[in-house]
UniProtKB/TrEMBL annotation:
InterPro entries: A_deaminase_dom, ADE, Ado/ade_deaminase, Metal_Hydrolase
GO cellular component terms listed in the entry, alphabetical order: cytosol
CC cofactor note: Binds 1 zinc ion per subunit.
Organism of this sequence: Pusillimonas noertemannii
The name this protein goes by in its record: Adenine deaminase
Protein family: Belongs to the metallo-dependent hydrolases superfamily. Adenosine and AMP deaminases family. Adenine deaminase type 2 subfamily.
Amino acid sequence: QALRDFVTGLPKAELHLHIEGTLEPEMIFELAQRNGVKLAYASEQALRDAYAFTDLQSFLDLYYAGASVLITERDFHDMALAYLRRAHADGARHVEIMFDPQTHTARGIDIETVFAGLASAMRMARDQWGLSSCLILSFLRHLSEADAFETLAQALPLREQYADLWIAIGLDSAERGNPPEKFTRVYAKCRELGFRLVAHAGEEGPPEYVRDALDLLHVQRIDHGVRSEEDPELMQRLIRQRTPLTVCPLSNLKLRVVDQMAQHNLARLLRQGLCVTVNSDDPAYFGGYLADNYTEAAKALSLQPQELGMLARNSIEASFLTANGKMSLM
Ligand code: ES4
Ligand code: ZN
């Protein structure tokens, strides 16, 4: 409890969080009922019991199924506000939220509905709790680059209306077989438009994907990146450039990227001088929110208070906040 209180008290940012991954079974059932959506599971407990993942894909199948209950602007608002309340309670001062518009537009939900629901919750959290947040629109890498371009075209008319929030582009979903190079052109376009860029790489995929995310997509941060350790040259580059890695300990454990938390390389990466951060990824599915990720990693890896402080400090450094506390596009 002393450890948890210490962690909660650290001023920090959450930089790797999929808002669709914050849908708890309770809310999935509540929204299903509200919207008349049929679920493949008889109860919240039956759904929870299905959360026994063997790899990334086994998780993604349930994650996309869970998101099918999101229909109205209010649904997106309620989901985001519940997460923001929890992040605030965990001591987050700033959060950068990924969302997957293609998961919703493919079901006939307008992208305007998604933006409006998320934004109203984010503005409420800023006004009520002083918790700042921004949006990272993420492309699904199992879909085509043409589909990503189409999604960008649907979102761009909303850019001005959400200029205080939507400042970055991300890349997520099934990594293996969907390398960064598949999205070179759409990332070049997003870069031209002045967006900040991040991408998942080196979670299940090889260190080459991390290198290509840097060289071909020109990302400023790597989401996960834990497999970078397999390439010493890449490691030296990440240290030299101070490229942030947004590491998600409980996610890596639940998706079997590591067999045991004690085997996680978070502490090694930190002690070698990388700008590593701790994040929750999909907290409703992986068994813990931001403070749980710090606490579980600290226990398993014997992280010292000073090291927990460094992780929190890194999260502020790696965020898209600028010196005046505001987000900025350039
Ligand atoms: C994700 Cl853990 C993870 N990896 C890749 N894509 C994702 N989308 C949501 N969670
Ligand atoms: Zn992720």
